[in-house]
Specification:
single chain; alpha/beta; disordered N terminus
């Protein structure tokens, strides 16, 4: 995908943000800026703070220092314009919910009153399913879907917010390699209309489909990816990946 540039304000900005967990410093002086129509991978070791970074951006956690702005607003005010796909979706397979039911859940926080979903809710739900190519499954039991299909439905649920920013935590966990590739192709298309940030351990996708990477390991640094010789093993996961530049044009670390 050709990277799009914009002179507009960033959709996500961290300004001198610091955060502690159980009095232990996790991040210190984080400064990042992400523009619209960006596809950004968030990588790093387990426990390094990747999910915490998303929770800060969603306003579910508060920084101890610094400011965070999402679409020019504090995260808790912008949350209704952000689509979020968690790593784990707790769902009882014995509950007779259809794809329609699950996607419409994304509209619950956008309704003025309790009761039946209205025409606009259903329109946005169908548009979300069309965008992830699952509209023909509208009345299908959610429990009968494959892992990849379920993930597409959860992405559609996030899209019903008319999201300008889409955040996903390990969207390809527990699916086979072919399904991973399909989901990454989908996310690349979705990033043509909105900013997409995803936590991932898949270094091959980072190498092949992402222009910007947030490396998170008790510090947070934005990098441009740069291709490395074929077959080079990554320090983190032992897969083919790209070097990322740490300033001054030097190749000094891998993520």
């Amino acid at each position: 995908m050709t990277e799009k540039h914009t002179s507009g304000p960033p959709v996500l900005a961290f300004d001198s943000v610091s955060f502690r967990f159980d009095e232990r410093p996790l991040f210190d002086n984080v400064n990042i800026s992400i523009q619209e129509r960006s596809l950004v991978g968030i990588v790093g070791p387990n426990g390094g703070g990747k999910t915490t970074l998303l929770k800060l951006a969603l306003g579910l956690l508060k920084p101890h220092k610094g400011t965070i702005r999402v679409l020019g607003m504090p995260p808790e005010e912008a949350r209704r314009q952000v689509g979020y796909v968690p790593q784990h979706f707790n769902f009882d397979d014995n509950f007779p919910a259809t794809v329609e039911d699950v996607v419409l859940m994304g509209r619950m926080g956008h309704r003025r009153s309790w009761g039946f979903y209205n025409r606009m809710d259903r329109k946005l739900a169908m548009e979300g399913l069309e965008e992830v190519e699952m509209d023909s499954f509208w009345k299908t039991p959610f429990s009968s879907l494959s892992g990849g299909q379920k993930q597409r439905v959860l992405i559609a649920r996030a899209l019903t917010t008319q999201a300008d920013v889409l955040m996903l935590d390990e969207p390809t966990a527990n699916v086979d390699p072919a399904t991973q590739r399909e989901l990454y192709e989908l996310l690349t298309r979705l990033a043509e209309k909105r900013a997409v940030l995803l936590v991932t351990h898949d270094m091959n996708f980072v190498a092949g489909g992402i222009k910007k990477v947030l490396c998170v390991n008790q510090r947070v640094v934005m990098h441009d990816t740069e291709e490395v010789p074929e077959g080079l093993l990554g320090q983190m996961l032992g897969t083919e990946l790209r070097f990322v530049k740490h300033g001054h044009g030097e190749r000094d670390d891998e993520h």
